[in-house]
Amino acid sequence: MSESIQDQVFKIIAEHGKVDVSEVKPESTLKDLNIASLEAIEIIFDIEEHFDITMPDRDPDFDTDSAQGLVDAVNEALAAKQNESGGSS
Amino acid sequence: MRRIVITGMGAVSACGMSAPALWEAMRDARSGIAPLVSPDPGATLRMKVAAQMKDFDPKPHFDETRLGLLDRSAQTTLIAAREAVSQAGIEFASSGALAQRSATVIGTGVGGELSREEQSRRLYRDNSTRVHPLSIVRTMPNAPASHVSIEFGLTGPAFGVVSACASSNHAIIQGAAMLRSGLADVALVGGTEACFSLSGVRAWEAMRVVADDTCRPFCKQRRGLVLGEGAGVFVLEILEHARARGATILAELAGWGMSADAGDIVAPSAEGAANAIRAALDDAQLNPEQVGYINAHGTATPANDPTESKAIRMAFGAHADSLAVSSTKGVHGHALGAAGALELVAAIGALREGVVPPTANFLDPDPACDLDYVPNQAREMPVHAALSNSFAFGGLNAVLALRRYPD
């Protein structure tokens, strides 16, 4: 079975945070994982590249958002992308 | 000590083609921020708004041969320099001795960015094997300084200065320091930026510090910075020199302070900013109580505004509550390497007219920003001394201290 969206996002976070992927939980915040804001924008960049999506612009509370928040945002962006390609055909 | 005065100013920005046009917009909180004119209409951009010089046409200002040499960042610098020199009423051509004693220092964040991108498109998009032969001289970050020296025949020390968003203030300080130390008697100083390339816009988007609505410094609803462009140039002179030729003095550049955070490459440090503010007060021999107005860096990013507010408190103590502090970036945007030069127009206006320009687009106060930001409405008050703050990515800080003249 292919990796779930959540697994893929957690893997990207773990790589940047230099932590084992098992340490990344849905409720972990980037702060919990000791990830600085500069690394956070790199994570967003890698996620965008990986899924070929555009994430919504950064909210003021981005730094304290949870890993689950990122997964939700990716799912939304993927759904939007699917609708777009479906609608334009 | 040799005292330094400002006898001419020029500015081009989203708010118009002169320093008075910019000053009036700042004073009246008339924002030059508008829907982004995209560098690539085919591209989908997240950046929605910007403070651009939309109707700028360089052709009436330069002959065709010369225009080929000039990146937009140099064009705007020259137009601002002409305004400043004309206001100062200074004649360089008639005296070789004066020309030799005249310095030129112009700051820029990225230099000839638009010219660079134009040639990159030829290479990577069009698969061309040739780039324009003037690419080097258009894109080099010292080009604006060189063109100013050429235009007015200034043969004294001349160079460019780079420190991202503090470039203008660092350039102004370098010019002033040469005057104070006796290396020159007159200096044309300032900064410029023309940064709306597709790659530039994309790079700012990727940093996720850009607001999609407008620039709202120091208020709770601020969502980040809004990019701007333009140039500002000033004529600095030794006081005796200005007096001897009967020049109108706009203000005294009484001192300056610089510091490096030596910490994070992006996150600002209150300690580093406070060090630069204190150094400027010391250098200008100003007591904190003498300062009435601070033109803040005030980018409207989540990080800058509370950090800068804290730095002002650290440097001013109890007097922080009596200061009028405003950011004019809601009007002219964040013009990066030109920011300090555009904002010096605000500080000079406050000293000369006794009117503090407001912080535009202000909605509700943020508890983390607890100073008097003069929201939305200009304030009439005599200002005897003012500071102008610039803090750059890379942790580079430069603060100007100005006095009303005569006071």
List the helices and strands and how they pair.
The complex is a heterodimer of chains A (89) and B (407).
Chain A: H1 5-17, H2 37-51, H3 67-88
Helix pairs in contact in A: 1-2, 1-3
Chain B: E1 4-13, H1 19-27, E2 34-35, E3 49-50, H2 64-67, H3 72-88, H4 96-100, E4 102-108, H5 113-125, H6 135-139, H7 143-152, E5 158-161, H8 167-181, E6 186-193, H9 198-207, E7 230-238, H10 239-244, E8 251-260, H11 270-283, E9 293-295, H12 304-316, E10 324-326, H13 329-332, H14 339-353, E11 355-356, E12 379-380, E13 385-392, E14 396-403
Descriptive overview:
The complex is a heterodimer of chains A (89) and B (407). Chain A has 89 residues and is mostly helical. Chain A has a single domain (5-88), classed as ACP-like (Non-ribosomal Peptide Synthetase Peptidyl Carrier Protein, Chain A), CATH 1.10.1200. In chain A, 56% of the residues lie in helices and 0% in strands. Chain A has 3 helices and no strands. The longest helix of chain A has 22 residues, at 67-88. Chain A is globular, with a radius of gyration of 13 Å. The termini of chain A are far apart. Chain B has 407 residues and is α/β, with parallel strands linked by helices. Chain B has 2 domains: 4-244, Peroxisomal Thiolase, Chain A, domain 1; 255-403, Thiolase/Chalcone synthase (Peroxisomal Thiolase, Chain A, domain 1), CATH 3.40.47. Chain B contains 14 helices and 14 strands. In chain B, the strands form 3 sheets. In chain B, strands 5-4-6-7-1-8-14-13-9-10 form a 10-stranded mixed β-sheet, sandwiched between helices. A two-stranded antiparallel ribbon of chain B has the order 2-3. The mean pLDDT of chain B is 97. Chains A and B meet through α2 of A and loops of B.
